[in-house]
């Protein structure tokens, strides 16, 4: 089973005067099938933490291990491959490419390996069905509602069957009912895949739907 182990993670940013110590001592342990919400005040470092967990940024100290492997010890090419295989990102503004169809957007992760093979196309179809968008595969993102675009982003994030799903405010721009529907589909796919789901959010409803709730305060995570 997948296991994420984070120990004593630190991250600072240069600032006028003293450096800004955003993450001071982050420790966490999560297993496959579990979901976790990270809440905390604006500017407390939630997105920074998510970016580091997904290897989009580097920590200054501490370790991140997924299934015993520390991705920050890999070289640049290996880490890109690791990220593509292990991590699914979902962003609040979904980052869909406007000139590609729904199906093409879901298949974006295959571009890195140059292999949109038949099984992956089949999986994209299954995921679009699971998120309720089978009849929208040829649409452009601009033709979809906000909730539908978020569901395309979820399908895309799950295409490579990642063990780690990282979501930054996945329901931030959605009305309550749509947010609940998106949360439900995200969590059901996460459980089906036995993946770890980590959601950064200001939404208490989304946080309450996760198995654990952690608050980021003064650079540390406190289970709450
Ligand atoms: N690349 C950077 N360079 C300098 N400072 C940065 C950088 N990225 C983030 N910061 C600072 O680090 C702090 C934490 O930012 P972060 O985006 O992680 O917060 P957050 O908790 O996600 O906030 P919000 O809830 O408002 O999205 C902020 O004060 C921000 O200005």
Strand residue percentage: 25-35%
The neighbouring-strand order within the major sheet is 5-6-7-3-8-9
Bound molecules: adenosine-5'-triphosphate
CATH-level-2 architecture: 3-Layer(aba) Sandwich
- Low-confidence residue ranges: none
Residue share in helices?
25-40%
- Rounded to the nearest angstrom, the distance between the terminal CA atoms is 25 Å
Total beta strand runs: 9
The number of distinct structural domains comes to 1
Instruction: Write out the CATH superfamily name.
Output: P-loop containing nucleotide triphosphate hydrolases
What's the story with the biggest beta sheet?
Answer: 6 strands, mixed
Q: What's the CATH class label?
A: Alpha Beta
The SSE string, one letter per element, is EEEHEHEHHHEHEHEE
According to CATH, what is the topology?
A: Rossmann fold
Organism: Roseiconus lacunae
Pfam family, one: ABC_tran
GO molecular function: ATP binding
Keywords: ATP-binding, Nucleotide-binding, Transport
How would you characterize the overall build of this protein?
With 224 residues, the chain is α/β, with parallel strands linked by helices. It has a single domain, classed as P-loop containing nucleotide triphosphate hydrolases (Rossmann fold, 3-Layer(aba) Sandwich), CATH 3.40.50. It contains seven helices and nine strands. The chain starts with a strand and ends with a strand. 39% of the residues are buried. The model has no long low-confidence stretch (mean pLDDT 93). Bound molecules: adenosine-5'-triphosphate.
């Amino acid at each position: 089973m997948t296991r994420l182990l984070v120990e004593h993670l630190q991250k600072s940013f240069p600032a006028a005067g003293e450096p800004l110590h955003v993450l001071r001592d982050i420790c966490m342990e999560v297993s496959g099938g579990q979901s976790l919400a990270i809440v905390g005040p604006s500017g407390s470092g939630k997105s920074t933490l998510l970016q580091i967990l997904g290897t989009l940024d580097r920590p200054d100290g501490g370790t991140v291990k997924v299934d015993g492997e520390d991705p920050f010890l890999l070289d640049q090419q290996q880490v890109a491959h690791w990220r593509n295989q292990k991590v699914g990102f979902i962003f609040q503004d979904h980052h869909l490419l406007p000139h590609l169809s729904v199906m093409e957007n879901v298949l974006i992760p295959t571009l890195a390996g140059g292999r949109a093979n038949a099984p992956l196309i089949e999986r994209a179809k299954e995921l679009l069905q699971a998120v309720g968008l089978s009849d929208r595969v040829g649409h452009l993102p601009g033709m979809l509602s906000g909730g539908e675009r978020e569901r395309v982003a979820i399908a895309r994030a799950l295409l490579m069957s990642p063990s780690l799903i990282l979501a930054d405010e996945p329901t931030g721009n959605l009305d309550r009912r749509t947010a609940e529907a998106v949360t439900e589909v995200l969590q059901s796919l996460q459980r089906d895949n036995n993946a770890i789901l980590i959601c950064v959010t200001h939404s208490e409803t989304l946080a309450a739907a996760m198995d654990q709730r952690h608050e980021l305060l003064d650079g540390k995570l406190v289970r709450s």
